[in-house]
User: Which sequence fits this backbone?
């Protein structure tokens, strides 16, 4: 017997596929890790519910802008025991998140407490908001300087910064 959570915005065909697969295989299909994601000043935060999961089974890795979280929940009962009710999801769980260029994947932090995995994904320095100062030169010319660009790069490329009026 499965109990499905009512989700008015969920995909009904996905739930039907899960139920059909459970009925045909005779085994329980593990459900995904529920998660919350939000952006704050220090980066992105991801919370994943993993109650009853042993920390040693949690694996987090990044490859080609994809963050992969894998965990496993093992049953407490042994094979061959008379199980009367088994409603808690068991097995291996995997969740993948596509990371943009703004995420600093080298400095991802993870904490696990009270069955919740909290990931902090910092924003790269280049993607941090910054203020650009606009300066007005003399006469009718206007010069715009960007603080992040070194002055030597423009002169090294042979470009002229003065106009021929």
Assistant:
């Amino acid at each position: 017997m499965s109990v499905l959570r009512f989700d008015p915005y969920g995909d009904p065909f996905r739930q039907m596929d899960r139920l059909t697969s459970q009925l045909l295989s005779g085994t329980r299909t593990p459900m995904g890790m529920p998660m919350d994601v939000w952006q704050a000043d220090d980066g992105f935060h991801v919370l994943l519910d993993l109650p009853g999961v042993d920390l040693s089974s949690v694996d987090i890795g990044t490859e080609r802008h994809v963050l992969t979280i894998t965990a496993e929940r093992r049953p407490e009962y042994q094979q061959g025991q008379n199980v009367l009710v088994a409603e808690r999801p068991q097995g291996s769980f995997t969740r993948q998140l596509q990371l943009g260029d703004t995420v600093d994947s080298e400095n991802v932090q993870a904490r696990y407490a009270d069955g919740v995995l909290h990931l902090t994904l910092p924003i790269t320095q280049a993607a941090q908001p910054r203020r650009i100062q606009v300066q007005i030169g003399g006469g009718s010319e206007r010069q715009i300087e960007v603080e992040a660009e070194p002055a030597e790069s423009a002169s090294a490329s042979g470009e002229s910064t003065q106009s021929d009026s």
In short: Residues 1-30 form one domain. Helices lie at 12-25, 151-156. Residues 12-25 form the longest helix (14 residues). The chain is about 10% helix and 30% strand.
